[in-house]
Predict the structure.
Amino acid sequence: GVNLVQAPQPKEVEPRALRPVALSEAGPPPSPQDFLSLLAPAFARYETQFITYGFTPIRTQWLQRAAGLGTVLTARTGTSEVTGTFETIDDNGQLILTTNAGRQGIAAADIFF
């Protein structure tokens, strides 16, 4: 999510999580409507790109900016926790971790570095 006005207190997040921030730390925050007017066109551009060219270009762009690529991280789902090296995201958008048991795809999880 995007914290417009207030971010969670550090004690409210995992100890190893990045420090939560809010846009208001950089100046007066935009209203939710103003922020949506900035976010919606960007979303529409990516949606058009996806419809026109598929997932591959978006995946490539995402991987160029991915935090923690090649590092050990933990992926927590509602029912399990997997720790391994962040190798990539696959053509379906799954996180690919290399673990002691081999490569594992994870469709959705909270990620901890």
Remarks:
- DSSP finds two helices and five strands in the chain.
- The helical segments are 32-53, 56-65.
- The chain has two domains: 1-54, 56-113.
